[in-house]
Amino acid sequence: LSTAAVIPAAGRGVRLGPGTPKALRTLGGTPMLVHAVRALARAREVALVVVVAPADGVAEVRTLLGTHGFPESKEIKVVAGGGTRQESVRLGLAALPDDIDVVLVHDAARPLVPVETVDAVAAAVRDGAPAVVPALPLADTVKQVEPDAAGGPERVVDTPERARLRAVQTPQGFRRDVLTEAHEKLADQATDGHGATDDAGMVERIGVQVVVVRGHEEAFKVTRPIDLVLAEAVLARRRA
Ligand code: C5P
């Protein structure tokens, strides 16, 4: 029995601005997706990495990954994704061989996650947790808002206690049977706009307890243009 990583990388990354699909944007000269695959393949636990590519980009991603080096003992597979992140993960899960019993789902958009974070998540699943998320406390206070019916500014309706909120990252780790069950039961929500924004959210919906391990500042998601500046700086510091 062993552990696989599924990396959804089929998003267009529109918030980052126009141009190449996000996973193929470069950081320090290397595509973000290659950084992400390396980060997961480096973890001792991980035997297989399944990359979920845009449906029209599978061949391109295979070529790209073929030209970059990964630890020799690690198998890398590329499959076609879907229209939402949830669908893409479901398609990645469907490509796993039978001997996989633990799955780590990791966003291609978090290319700089340290191997220690990957190891901590995998270890917590091996130690018996059905679902594990890495998370950090928030710097900002968070408000819940609702739109103004007349088209005016949004209105604040609640301020949750900051000390009890966490910003959740990836990789999120699961017992394979738990994650597969969640994706099967909730498949119809993937396309109707009520899809979960992370995998732990899905297993919560089927009543499974999720536990938290400490995340890492460098596991941030590259979403907006400013994140590229930060990611380049982190890489430069690592290489110094
Ligand atoms: O859009 P968001 O930032 O939540 O995307 C998180 C991850 O999900 C990204 O790595 C993105 O490539 C992936 N994704 C996907 N298939 C989609 C949409 C997003 O694999 N249809």
UniProtKB/TrEMBL annotation:
Signal peptide: none annotated. It comes from the Bacteria. Keywords: Isoprene biosynthesis, Nucleotidyltransferase, Transferase. The keyword Transferase applies. Pfam families: IspD (PF01128). Its EC number is 2.7.7.60. The record marks 162, 221 as: Positions MEP for the nucleophilic attack. SUPFAM superfamilies: Nucleotide-diphospho-sugar transferases. It catalyses: 2-C-methyl-D-erythritol 4-phosphate + CTP + H(+) = 4-CDP-2-C-methyl-D-erythritol + diphosphate. One of its GO terms (molecular function) is 2-C-methyl-D-erythritol 4-phosphate cytidylyltransferase activity. Transmembrane segments: none annotated. PROSITE patterns: ISPD. Belongs to the IspD/TarI cytidylyltransferase family. IspD subfamily. Catalyzes the formation of 4-diphosphocytidyl-2-C-methyl-D-erythritol from CTP and 2-C-methyl-D-erythritol 4-phosphate (MEP). This is 2-C-methyl-D-erythritol 4-phosphate cytidylyltransferase. It comes from Streptomyces humicola. The gene is ispD.
